[in-house]
Design brief:
Blueprint lengths: L2 H7 L7 E8 L3 E4 L4 E9 L2 E5 L5 E3 L4 E4 L5 E4 L5 H5 L2 E2 L15 E10 L7 H4 L5 E3 L7 H14 L6 H22 L6 H6 L1 H12 L7 H8 L3 H12 L3 H19 L4 H8 L4 H12 L3 H17 L5
Parallel strand pairs: 2-8
Antiparallel strand pairs: 1-9, 2-7, 3-6, 3-9, 4-5, 4-7, 6-10
Helix pairs in contact: 4-5, 7-8, 8-9, 10-11, 10-12, 11-12
């Protein structure tokens, strides 16, 4: 896969959840911090969002906002101040839908969240800001707009197959929001990484086949440059040499497989590029400070606890 797809795939856990809500009059809702990422899309009207410890953001029709680190926040019908925050109602109390009137003007929102494993997040996702605001602009991010329209339609009607369509569209929305941030050069390092032809080519090769017998010479040939040129550009942009990145990525993949599958250590070692389970176990313990078996048990216990608390809804 490509870097963005892999970055998302290694942290995604369980199924995303989403709701289409209509509000009117004076309203204010509180979203508690979450071990994942949250999003809102404004379908009608407008609102304000205030992340914990951050600045308020005004959202208009068609605007999308991603909170990639699960930051707690408040959304309201008017500019958010201390008084507004004090009267905020937990979103979970809007059982059966928030207070609204079919005839009153107000706002209609898509609200959702993704459950993510932040214990081994890719640096591309780690550097996302607290709030990724994607304003609705004519002719901008056509795929994102199409996904929003499709998701809004599915959530607004009881249609055959919606049980499959909605989770798929919610997952697609996450990809498009991160892609939009990368495309608009959100101020982080990774838009520049993916925009550099040499480094991007090397990353595509490593992510396409991480288990291959890579060397600096082979990777430089894949990128079409000399070994010193690859080392200089890759290290400068990514923050670590190519082979160090490959080792980190292989162990990240191993951690994800330990979390999400029942594959044996031998199978995982082969799939991520280690010749023996002993070699993987040694590298894994050095990187994570624990053995693969203990890591698997700890992640399984954590996921069970989260599911019991309803965070995997």
């Amino acid at each position: 896969m490509d870097v963005v797809s892999d970055a998302i795939a290694t942290v995604r856990m369980g199924r995303a959840s989403s709701d289409r809500v209509r509000v009117s009059g004076s309203w204010c809702a509180r979203f508690a911090p979450y071990d994942g990422a949250g999003f809102h899309v404004v379908l009608e009207g407008g609102c304000w969002l205030l992340p914990d410890g951050g600045s308020a953001v005004s959202l208009g029709v068609g605007d999308a906002v991603l909170l990639p680190h699960g930051t707690g926040h408040v959304i309201a019908d008017s500019p958010v101040d201390a008084e507004t925050v004090a009267r905020a109602v937990p979103f979970e109390r809007w059982t059966g839908g928030p207070p609204s009137s079919p005839t009153a003007s107000g706002a209609e929102l898509l609200c959702g969240k993704y459950r993510l494993d932040h214990s081994r997040v890719h640096p591309l996702l780690a550097e996302l800001p607290t709030v990724v605001h994607l304003p609705n602009r004519v002719g901008d991010q056509a795929e994102l707009r199409a996904a929003i329209d499709l998701l809004g339609g599915e959530l607004g009607a009881d249609r055959p197959g919606s049980g499959i369509a909605v989770p798929g569209l919610v997952d697609l929305l996450l990809v498009y929001m991160i892609r939009a941030w990368v495309a608009q050069d959100g101020g982080g390092a990774w838009p520049a990484v993916l925009g550099d032809p040499v480094t991007a080519a090397a990353l595509r090769a490593l992510h396409a086949d991480p288990a291959a017998a890579w060397s600096n010479d082979r990777l430089a040939a894949e990128a079409g440059v000399s070994r010193p040129t690859l080392a200089r550009r890759f290290t400068s942009l990514v923050g670590r040499p190519p082979m160090a990145y490959l080792t980190w990525w292989r162990l990240t993949l191993a951690a994800a497989r330990l979390r999400d599958s029942e594959d044996s250590l031998t199978t995982i070692a082969r799939r991520v590029g280690y010749g023996t389970p002993y070699a993987l176990s040694h590298a894994f313990s050095r990187e994570f400070g624990t053995t693969p078996g203990r890591y698997r048990a700890a992640r399984s216990a954590a996921m069970t606890q989260q599911a019991g608390q309803g965070t995997g809804r």
